[in-house]
Every structure is written in C-alpha cells, then in structure tokens.
Design goal:
Structural class: mainly alpha
Strand content: under 5%
Number of strands: 0
Shape: elongated
C-alpha cells in the first residue's frame, strides 16, 4: 500500500488554476518592475535636461569648450601624456 493521495478532477483543476494564477502574478510583478524602471529613467532624463538647460551649465560649457576641443585634438594626434592616461 502506498500513501499516494488520490486526486479528483476538481482538485486537479484547482491545482492547474492555482498554478496559472501564480504564473500570472509573477508576470504582473515583472511588468510592474519594468514600468517602475521606465518611469525612473524618465524622471532622471527630465532632471538631466533641466540641468543642461540651466544658465550655469551653458556658461560652463562655453568656458570649457576650448579646453575640450584641445583635448580632443591632442588625443587624436596621439600625443602621449596629454590625455591624462
């Protein structure tokens, strides 16, 4: 004699339904996590755009433009020690 519980068609149907619901819950949790991530990246992009449109950022870029241009030219020419590496 084995102690295998007998299952009825109703119990099998309930188990299948429960597994389907668990699978659906896991899928929805993954979708919520994805939407939160997208929302966070949108908020970060909005903040970065606000910083880049500020007067301080634009003045800083204007002041540093010649330095950045010189670094780019020097790195393309391959001058050793000029790129800080």
């Amino acid at each position: 004699m084995t102690n295998v519980p007998e299952t009825t068609p109703d119990a099998d149907t309930d188990a299948i339904r429960q597994l389907a619901l668990v699978d659906r819950i896991i899928g929805l949790q993954a979708e919520v996590a994805n939407l939160r991530s997208m929302n966070l990246s949108r908020e970060v992009r909005t903040q970065v755009d606000a910083v880049k449109s500020s007067t301080t950022w634009r003045i800083g870029r204007f002041v540093l433009a010649p330095v950045m241009f010189a670094r780019r030219v020097i790195s393309r020419l391959g001058v050793k020690g000029a790129s800080g590496k």
